[in-house]
Write a sequence for this structure.
């Protein structure tokens, strides 16, 4: 857990990929400008909770028909209702201070990154909720999912809600290590 210049933290990568394995990934894709949702015609549990900036589900076929440019645009965060894709689950929202968590939806669709992560500009490296952003930087160590990811996993049916938590403040520990006193909340 000690940040090392020029190195990627293995535990942080494993935690990130474990979250994907626990359904922190959807089926939204864009190809040739056309968006699709669903695997063999069915959405994943993650897809069910994704909304546009107007809080309209991306699964709403009357607004976002599958296989269309309008669905492709919303997956790329450039929907007609405004920019961005968001999580609408109550536990994820509660963990984000009552605000819908913003998903990663750049205007240029990036296979494997777009749609399936938290927005890296909203949750920058080194913040409590940056584990599920699209990339991990050198010397970035994240050994907790963060409240938003815990809430999102809870919205998907996982019983991950902690009965305690740590302060979101940062405690400085010297390069030689040391102890940091924490209290249960």
């Amino acid at each position: 857990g000690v940040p090392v210049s020029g190195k990627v933290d293995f535990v942080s990568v494993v935690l990130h990929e474990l979250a994907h394995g626990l359904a922190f990934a959807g089926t939204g894709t864009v190809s040739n400008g056309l968006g699709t949702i669903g695997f063999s015609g069915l959405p994943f549990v993650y897809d069910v909770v994704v909304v546009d900036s107007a809080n309209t589900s991306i699964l709403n076929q009357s607004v976002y028909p599958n296989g269309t440019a309008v669905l492709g645009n919303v997956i790329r965060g450039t929907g007609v209702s405004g920019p961005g894709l968001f999580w609408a689950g109550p536990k994820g929202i509660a963990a984000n201070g009552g605000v819908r968590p913003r998903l990663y939806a750049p205007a240029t669709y990036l296979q494997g990154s777009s749609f399936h992560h938290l927005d890296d500009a909203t949750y920058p490296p080194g913040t409590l909720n940056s584990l599920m952003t699209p990339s991990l930087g050198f010397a970035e160590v994240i050994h907790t999912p963060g409240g938003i990811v815990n809430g999102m996993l809870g919205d998907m049916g996982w019983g991950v809600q902690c009965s305690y938590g740590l302060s979101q403040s940062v405690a400085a520990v010297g390069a030689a290590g040391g102890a940091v006193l924490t209290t249960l909340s």
